[in-house]
């Protein structure tokens, strides 16, 4: 007659194994969230770079907390570098959402041209501010069926920077090199460019997060 076998459970070993398994799954979640956030940042960068001229694509940033290790509520954030309600956020809105911008009280929107000069912080100066800063007067030029202009008379362009300045009295007297340079374009309305969409890329990340998590847990050992 066979004798009964005694089943002995090691509680401490079971607790240690369970704790190890839980930590592995939590670490897999952290890795999945971090990877998905980085991938979304790269997708937004690529979409922006393909649709928008210049370096706006560099404004996308991402971070994850924690970066590695087990966490019950890991997070990943993708945001715009700089002030989201300022120039950068406005630029992204312009290129991603349909709409229009109109001047206040029916006035024109004055768009600075490269010939206006100035640094990045001065790119949204009004014509009045430009005149006060430079001490130069602008002249209005109406063009039927085309955008009107504010121009600088008796001017010359800097060959290196492309900015305009008025000629000295001596050069004016010689009559050499004097030209009229457009400084602002005056537009009654500017239409937003719906060039690329953010929401579909964000929504696609939900499915990607699940895939990244399942990929991360495949290598977990149950021993």
Characterization of this structure:
- With 223 residues, this protein is α+β, with helices and mostly antiparallel strands.
- It has 2 domains: 14-94 and 195-217, no CATH class; 102-191, no CATH class.
- Helix content is 38%, strand content 21%.
- It has 5 helices and 9 strands; from the N terminus they run αββαββαβββαββα.
- The protein has helices spanning 11-51, 87-96, 127-134, 169-174, 199-217, and strands at 60-65, 75-80, 100-102, 109-112, 139-141, 148-157, 164-166, 179-187, 189-191.
- The strands form 3 sheets. Strands 4, 5, 6, 7 and 8 form a 5-stranded antiparallel β-sheet that branches. A two-stranded antiparallel ribbon has the order 1-2.
- The protein is elongated and about 110 Å long.
- It starts with 10 loop residues before the first helix and ends in a 6-residue tail after the last helix.
- The model has no long low-confidence stretch (mean pLDDT 82).
């Amino acid at each position: 007659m066979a004798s009964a076998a005694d089943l002995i459970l090691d509680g401490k070993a079971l607790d240690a194994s369970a704790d190890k398994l839980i930590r592995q799954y939590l670490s897999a979640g952290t890795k999945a969230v971090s990877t998905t956030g980085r991938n979304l940042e790269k997708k937004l960068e690529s979409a922006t770079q393909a649709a928008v001229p210049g370096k706006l694509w560099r404004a996308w940033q991402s971070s994850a907390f924690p970066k590695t290790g087990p966490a019950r509520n890991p997070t990943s954030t993708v945001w715009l570098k700089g002030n989201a309600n300022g120039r950068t956020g406005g630029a992204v809105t312009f290129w991603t959402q349909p709409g229009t911008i109109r001047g206040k009280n029916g006035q024109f929107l004055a768009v600075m041209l490269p010939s206006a000069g100035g640094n990045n912080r001065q790119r949204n100066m009004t014509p009045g501010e430009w005149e006060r800063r430079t001490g130069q007067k602008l002249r209005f030029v109406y063009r039927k069926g085309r955008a009107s202009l504010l121009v600088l008379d008796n001017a010359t362009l800097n060959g290196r920077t492309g900015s305009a300045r008025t000629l000295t009295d001596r050069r004016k007297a010689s009559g050499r090199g004097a030209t009229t340079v457009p400084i602002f374009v005056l537009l009654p309305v500017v239409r937003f460019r719906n060039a690329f969409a953010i929401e579909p890329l964000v929504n696609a990340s939900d499915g990607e997060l699940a895939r990244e998590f399942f990929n991360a847990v495949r290598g977990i050992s149950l021993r």
